Amino acid sequence: MPRFILPLFLMALLLAAPAIAQSSFSVMPRIGYGTFSMQGLKTVQEGFKYQNDLGLEVVEEFPAYYQFGLQFRYNISERYAGGIVLETGSTGGRVAYADYSGSIRADQLVSYKSAGTFSEYLIREGKLNWYACIEVTAVRSALTLETTSQIKQHHGHDKDELVAIGVGIKPYVSLKYPVKRFVPEISMGYLFYYGKPFHLREDERMILSANNKEIGPDWGGLRVTAGIGVLLF
Q1: Which of 15, 42, 120, 137 is the most exposed place for a label (fewest CB within 10 A)?
Q2: Phi first, then psi: what are they for 212, rounded to 5°?
Q3: What is the dihedral of CA 32, 33, 37, 38, to 10 degrees?
């Protein structure tokens, strides 16, 4: 876990302790599906595509994919709740070409781990409860740039590991259906991402760039999430 995430988690837990002691507490494993902007990394793909005359084509362009998370929630009042959220996700890109003489493939595999806090406000109560929510997380991204080639009898392989940090802000609406100690939930929102550019894991001075611009991840996009909360006390 990144060094900046652990203090954030402990601070949020400390602030939450008084409310947790006075109110109900639940844990919710969740799964989500989302889109990703990744405009900077798409520029990297285009640069790799046109830096030679091999006829490379973009095969994968950072498609929508799943996220997995864990949410710790406590009720502060009848209408307001908050807590801590942990999440991980990934996507990737590929540029490739192959013919009778050989093949070349360039993969861009990007993933993230995040931790932060969320708050929610009950806007409509009934059999189905509607909440207006916001989530703020610290995000650590990892990027693997891997190129493999085979031209006749010649084999090539190159691999670089890069990292970046940033912040995600996600306003969303959630719908809950309480059933005794279980609370199924589905939510929809949009993640806004702000962060620094990628740099080599072992050297922060070596920053990823393309077209004279520093390149970082952009996890921004639509998010749909579902989970089942379990009331512990």
Answers
A1: 15
A2: 65, 25
A3: 80
| Distance (Å, whole) CA 84 – CA 139 | 14
The string of pLDDT tens digits covering residues 11-41 is 555 555 554 444 589 999 999 999 999 999 9
**Minimum mean pLDDT range among 47-56, 84-93, 182-191:** 47-56
Strands 203-207 and 209-210: unpaired
**Which tokens go with 90?**
């990934």
Q: Pick from 26, 12, 35: which is nearest to 188 by CA? A: 35
Tokens for 179, please give them. Answer: 């059933």
- In the chain, domain spans: 5-174+198-224
Q: What's the rounded Cα separation, in Å, for the pair 71 and 28?
A: 5
Q: Is the pLDDT of residue 1 over 50?
A: no
Q: Which amino acid is at 228?
A: I
What does the DSSP 8-state code read for residue 179?
Answer: B
End-to-end CA distance of the chain: 28
